[in-house]
């Protein structure tokens, strides 16, 4: 065993080959969000612990056992690395009064932190792209959020399945909670230890139990569906109608409850069976009470977040590669005169918007050409003292057949640019 310092368990480096894919993904995502009129919000990675306790819920798994919380020794404040982005977004919206002139469509991306047991698709630092639409009441926004996801899946060449449910409104959930407590309390003998612990704090989570001995009891438990008010049902019907009108297939899953407390009405998850146990690639729903709960003027809201690691794993499982940006040119040079000219040529290429890697570290032409090839550049721009004296370069295509040609720098730039537009 080496005693070198390693990264923290469950927190991964993103090396250049992987970063290229992430950048390709991020470019697709930014453009997709722009087309839907969403604007980016960037919030701090650290927040006051109380924010997450209030927003996500004191008796959720995230708050009870997954948060990275510590006391700032300089002032005694309890701070937490954000486990998700909705709470911070709502905090920022309230703090800066962003809803003063109507609804806002926001998005964010970045690392989130949860102290879970790491496994494939589940990390302690993971990354989300999140979308929050604040200030919109109607079912149309719920449907828009789902339709836009479907649009992105098409672009990424993946096809996760949509599961949908409604949690109704607060009063219905309270009634359901009381009924669940009464029901489970009258079956104390069947409850396992977890269920007993949750009976009064979070009886809804008992329904999630994986314990086969609890299955029959759970199947017969009071259903939230039976408590829902007409208004919530009408809202849910309208969401479904909009999805059908947009050709979005879905399955209603009455067991879909989500692990964060702020949701009401529509909740959804995009799931796949191609990633093993961690099959939810994107999840969200409506959270109409949260803005008020965190101290703002009441405002409806809905959103979702997708896990970037899981989504990219799904893209890869489908055999698709997101285009990775390779340099346009790798500049190979030998000789003092050539080196000085190579710097100038690199500058000209970059000013023209091309990505040019200038060979550093010397070496023979042959070894430099090997590096050029390994860089995946489309062209080698070769400069010897001859070329330098004539203020020309030799252009050699590396990715496709073609003769090498000696040309003026301006012509070389034009040539590479034309070749890339043809390719696009
Ligand atoms: P969430 O279901 O906790 O919701 O997380 C959303 C997504 O983040 C998951 O579906 C999954 O793809 C990814 N994810 C969660 N935990 C991990 C992990 N440990 N490792 C890798 N990926 C993970 C939320 O976070 C809500 N804020 C979503 C939302 C936004 N609802 C309304 N607006």
The CATH topology of the largest domain is given as BirA Bifunctional Protein, domain 2
Q: What is the overall number of helices? A: 15
Report the CATH C-level class of the largest domain.
Alpha Beta
Shape: elongated
Which structural class best describes the helix and strand composition?
Answer: alpha+beta
Q: Name the CATH superfamily assignment of the largest domain.
A: Bira Bifunctional Protein, Domain 2
Task: Walk me through the structure.
The chain has 424 residues and is an alpha+beta fold. The chain has helices spanning 16-35, 49-56, 61-66, 86-95, 139-156, 170-185, 193-198, 212-219, 230-245, 290-293, 308-317, 336-351, 365-374, 385-390, 409-423; strands at residues 39-40, 46-48, 69-71, 78-81, 104-113, 125-134, 161-166, 251-252, 264-271, 280-286, 301-307, 329-333, 356-358, 379-383, 392-397, 405-408. 40% of the residues lie in helices and 20% in strands. α1 crosses α5 (139-156) and α5 (139-156) runs parallel beside α9. The longest helix is centred in the N-terminal third of the chain and has 20 residues, at 16-35. The two termini are 49 Å apart. Bound molecules: histidyl-adenosine monophosphate. Residues 84-86, 114, 116, 122-123, 126, 128, 130, 132, 260, 280-285, 287, 303-307, 309-310 line the site of histidyl-adenosine monophosphate (HAM).
């Amino acid at each position: 065993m080496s005693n070198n310092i390693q990264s923290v368990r469950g927190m991964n480096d993103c090396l250049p080959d992987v970063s290229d894919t992430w950048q390709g993904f991020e470019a697709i995502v930014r453009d997709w969000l722009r087309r839907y009129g969403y604007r980016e919000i960037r919030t701090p990675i650290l927040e006051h612990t109380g924010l997450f306790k209030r927003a996500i819920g004191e008796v959720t798994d995230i708050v009870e056992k997954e948060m990275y919380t510590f006391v700032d020794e300089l002032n005694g404040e309890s701070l937490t690395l954000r486990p998700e982005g909705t709470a911070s977004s709502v905090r920022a919206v309230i703090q800066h009064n962003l809803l003063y002139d109507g609804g806002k469509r926001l998005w964010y991306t970045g690392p989130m932190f949860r102290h879970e047991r790491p496994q494939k698709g589940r990390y302690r630092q993971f990354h989300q792209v999140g979308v929050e639409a604040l200030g919109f009441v109607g079912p149309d926004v719920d449907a828009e959020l789902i339709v836009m996801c479907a649009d992105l899946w098409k672009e990424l060449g993946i096809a996760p399945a949509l599961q949908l449910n409604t949690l109704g409104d607060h009063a219905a959930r309270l009634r359901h909670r009381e009924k669940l407590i009464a029901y489970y309390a009258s079956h104390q003998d069947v409850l396992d230890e977890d269920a007993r612990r949750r009976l009064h704090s979070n009886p809804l989570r008992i329904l999630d139990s994986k314990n086969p001995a609890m299955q029959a009891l759970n199947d017969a438990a009071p259903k939230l569906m039976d408590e829902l008010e007409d208004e919530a049902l009408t809202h849910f019907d309208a969401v479904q109608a909009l999805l059908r009108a947009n050709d979005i297939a879905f399955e209603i899953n009455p067991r879909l409850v989500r692990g964060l407390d702020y949701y009401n009405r529509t909740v959804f998850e995009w799931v796949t069976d191609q990633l093993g146990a961690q099959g939810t690639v994107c999840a969200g729903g409506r959270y109409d009470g949260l803005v008020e709960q965190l101290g703002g003027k009441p405002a409806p809201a809905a959103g979702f977040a997708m896990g970037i690691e899981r989504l990219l794993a799904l893209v890869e499982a489908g055999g698709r590669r997101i285009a990775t940006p390779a340099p346009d040119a790798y500049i190979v040079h030998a000789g003092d005169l050539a080196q000085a000219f190579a710097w100038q040529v690199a500058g000209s290429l970059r000013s023209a918007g091309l990505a040019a890697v200038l060979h550093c570290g010397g070496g023979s032409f042959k070894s430099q050409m090997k590096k050029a090839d390994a860089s995946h550049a489309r062209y080698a721009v070769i400069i010897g003292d001859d070329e330098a004296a004539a203020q020309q370069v030799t252009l050699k295509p590396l990715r496709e057949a073609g003769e090498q040609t000696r040309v003026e720098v301006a012509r070389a730039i034009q040539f590479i640019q034309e070749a890339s537009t043809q390719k696009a």
